[in-house]
């Protein structure tokens, strides 16, 4: 098992001529005590946003048959498992995260028969399919909500209902609390038919389920079992921290949340500190129940381990609870969003230096419970693309880093190509996070730029669709940034990505120990090593200035001779060249992976 144990506080500062000092206070070491791993522990996971992946029927929207047609591509780039953003029946108020039927497929994506075909065809290629599970809410068009509105027996308390209060001064009825939704404005909305408010922490068409109702808990377990029966390998669980809210007081009142001080915009979710609506312990314990369900299913039905991946941007002290404890198993992969949140907290990391990179790596590895597996998420459908957040000169460097670190790598579609954000006009915006604002401020909320269609070729509409238009505009850079062109060109982002996939299959990267440090502001150095196997070292200059005379060997305790195994185009060197780790020169944004000889 992986033991994240040694934190070496050496307090040594070695002068390196004109180079910055090595700060070994930030060094961390991880060790591997055995060479046994479950399939997911060394997996290369890949997120597909189905609406934007491949359109098979010419309507400008991606679909399941489109994914099936590209399974050979996934196999070619080494994908172990792919998780699909929601494909369930939905009115598409939040593009599938508002589910009207948890047991069926959205017609524009296909049918249950298409899904079964996807499972079968993926299995032929040894690719597992993981579904996005949306536990916090449903669509207001879901039959459960419609029955709850009518107070039908068994559904009265399926959702979070409240009378609210009449303002003694105005005589008008007001919401039960000041709680805010993620997409701006009150989290409470009045239902005329039921004559009560319902809670929706996301869009008004996404009412929150009531997890304090055992019937809801049982229903959602039926949802999980249904899709397990259809062959999925596990679930990525959406917006998990919102599942439970604090209980009301003896008078039935919910407490107001305190002001955060982060913004003066009273409609912005960040206006409040969400201490009563997010990150409750009951939510962690619900994930434990879901893990038990998946483990029981495997014990009864056999097959490989079914996995849980948890989406949470909460503080790491809360995130780490999802792993479980000595007596209870939790999620195998609470998502590690530290490279998204970033070293400076504002998600724009184009100026992040080596100290910041090491801080990000250390934040996870130093706090992860012993015996657990790390995972590295660089991007997803809710965040600006890696090349836009970290800078286009760092695209290869970031892929090298993700593939080199210990544990699970998780790639969002298109990052292997170096796809970048497309600025979407107000008129073309589709994301409710943007559309619920206004034309002056929508760009600070929109998620559309990272959701543009996948760029398959330089053909019309990037080979994504034969339709005259697509649901979101396509980035004009598809003419050169596309899978077809990069497959036939070397060097390219895709060619390097595939080389990284091959290297990642080595025993050293799958089972080896890890030591890492920053060397001054410019250089990140990581060593992976395993007894009886070649050692590998990643050195990356993360800034736009050259460095020379860098002593990486002292920083990561590397001895012996090394040669270049892989490099990005910014590195002015050649594969096979010998390298002196105690006296390195690196061009701006140059990254090398070195192999011991």
UniProtKB/TrEMBL annotation:
Highest taxon listed in the record's lineage: Eukaryota
Gene3D superfamilies according to UniProt? Glycosidases, Oligo-1,6-glucosidase, Domain 2
Q: Which BP terms in the Gene Ontology apply to this protein? A: carbohydrate metabolic process
Q: Name one GO molecular function term.
A: alpha-1,4-glucosidase activity
Give the coiled coil ranges: none
Family named by the database record: Belongs to the glycosyl hydrolase 13 family.
Q: Catalysed reaction(s)?
A: Hydrolysis of terminal, non-reducing (1->4)-linked alpha-D-glucose residues with release of alpha-D-glucose
List its EC numbers: 3.2.1.20
Alphabetical list of SMART domains matching this protein:
Aamy
Its taxonomic placement starts with: Eukaryota, Metazoa, Ecdysozoa, Arthropoda, Hexapoda
**Per UniProt, which keywords does this protein have?**
Glycoprotein, Glycosidase, Hydrolase, Signal
Q: Which organism is it from?
A: Drosophila melanogaster
SUPFAM superfamilies tied to this protein: (Trans)glycosidases
Q: What is this protein called?
A: alpha-glucosidase
InterPro entries membership: GH (IPR017853), GH13_cat_dom (IPR006047), O16G_dom_2 (IPR045857)
> Which gene name does the record give?
CG30360-RC
Q: Name one Pfam family in it.
A: Alpha-amylase
Signal peptide, first to last residue: 1-19
Q: Does the keyword Hydrolase apply?
A: yes
Boundaries of every Glycosyl hydrolase family 13 catalytic domain copy = 47-451
The keyword Signal belongs to this UniProt entry's keyword annotation: yes
